[in-house]
Design a protein that fits this description.
Shape: elongated
Mean pLDDT: 90
Largest sheet: 5 strands, mixed, barrel
Number of strands: 9
Radius of gyration: 23 Å
Number of domains: 2
Number of helices: 11
Order of helices and strands: EEEHEEHHHHHHEEHHHEEH
Distance between the termini: 26 Å
Strand order of the largest sheet: 1-2-3-5-4
Bound molecules: fe (ii) ion
Structural class: alpha+beta
Low-confidence stretches: 332-343
């Protein structure tokens, strides 16, 4: 089933059919004592008030706040606002739900981002790393999750496709650095770009809004989960979890946050781990700053962000115009998305 109607397209007088997220739900009674449901329904284009007047108790018992429901409704005007009079509603099945309809989505061209990653997977020549990458990404569910997952609940790349965008960005950053420092182990750094945050596919849930932590995500964290995914691929392939390059890869996964207080159980202790931590941090921070620029909205002057507790500072941000950013990006042929993402190099045509 497709998404159906989108909130921003709904006008009074129309019929509405489609999937919406229940942001608010309350059972009330009319002056005559008849129960009715007050709902706020949303998707990633906005939210709209809705009422269920008939069979309110029965229909309302089939779903809760946070669920995705399928509705049939009439759009009416009430107090100058568009409102939905819901005639039918039922909880949607998991397989009917596309999370990109209900959560923010990466501004990048995700198809190209995946092309960057799949090309990189094919380029890795070191036998064990190549086998592990192929084993992990040939699993359909893993590949789907890697393409969809956010890279965080907040902070950086906290949207559908965020993990893919971040990983593709790192593949390209690694390419630039290896060009300048050719003695670095390119296959190892490329593998780390693709796998350092792979644990996020189990750490986070995004099938229904909001993006949240799973139980194992909260209890173990994506670093531990990432190592488990690599180890289980090794076991499936019959290769040692501690062979030289696998060990070096797991060291990067474990140390990529750079410091123990940021969740890394070990500090970066190889050249590649030191480099990778810096690149990961660079990509995450620039994406975070892009978010701050977006949050300020369109402006023609420099200005201050709110105080950022995590960084213990305000940020001084440049003028921002969505149109200029898009034009610059299009000029450089780098992305088709909207918004102030940092320039990327991806221009691949290979699928
Ligand atoms: Fe991470
Ligand atoms: Fe990362």
């Amino acid at each position: 089933m497709g998404k159906g109607a989108r909130v921003r397209d709904i006008r009074p007088g129309g019929k509405v059919e489609g999937l919406f997220c229940v942001s608010e739900k309350a059972l009330r009674t009319t002056r005559n004592g008849a129960p009715f449901l007050v709902l706020t329904l949303s998707d990633n284009t906005g939210q709209i008030e809705a009422r269920v007047w008939d069979n309110a108790q029965e229909l309302g018992s089939g779903f809760d706040k946070g669920d995705i429901i399928f509705i049939e409704a009439d759009a009416v005007e009430f107090n100058g606002q568009c409102q939905l009079k819901v005639n039918r509603c039922e909880q949607a099945l998991d397989e009917e739900i596309d999370p990109s309809h209900f959560l923010p989505v990466s501004p990048c061209d995700l198809k190209k981002a995946w092309q960057v990653c799949s090309k990189a997977i094919k380029r890795v020549k070191e036998p064990n790393l190549a086998l592990v990458l192929k084993e992990i990404f040939s699993d359909k569910a893993t590949k789907k999750a890697f393409k969809e997952a956010p890279a965080a609940k907040r902070m950086h790349h906290a949207y559908i496709g965020g993990l893919l965008e971040h990983s593709a960005s790192l593949v390209e950053l690694v390419g630039l650095v290896v060009n300048r420092y050719p003695h670095l182990h390119s296959d190892l750094l490329v593998s780390a770009s693709l796998l350092h945050d792979i644990g996020k596919i189990r750490e986070l849930s995004w099938a229904r809004p909001p993006i949240d932590y799973t139980d194992e995500g909260r209890l173990l964290g994506h670093i531990q989960l990432g190592v488990e995914i690599i180890d289980s691929a090794c076991k499936g392939l019959g290769i040692s979890c501690n062979s030289e390059n696998i060990l070096a890869l797991k060291h990067i996964v474990l140390s990529h946050h750079g410091q123990k207080e940021f969740g890394s159980p070990v500090l970066p202790m190889t050249e590649e781990a030191v480099v990778f931590h810096m690149l990961d941090d660079l990509d995450a921070k620039l994406n975070f700053l892009s978010g701050l620029k977006m949050a300020r909205g369109e402006t023609k002057s420099w200005g201050w962000s709110d105080y950022q507790h995590l960084f213990e500072r305000f940020f001084f941000l440049p003028p921002f115009s969505m149109q200029e950013t898009d034009e610059k990006a299009t000029e450089q042929g780098i992305h088709k998305g909207k918004g102030p993402i940092q320039p990327t190099l991806w221009d691949t045509d290979e699928s």
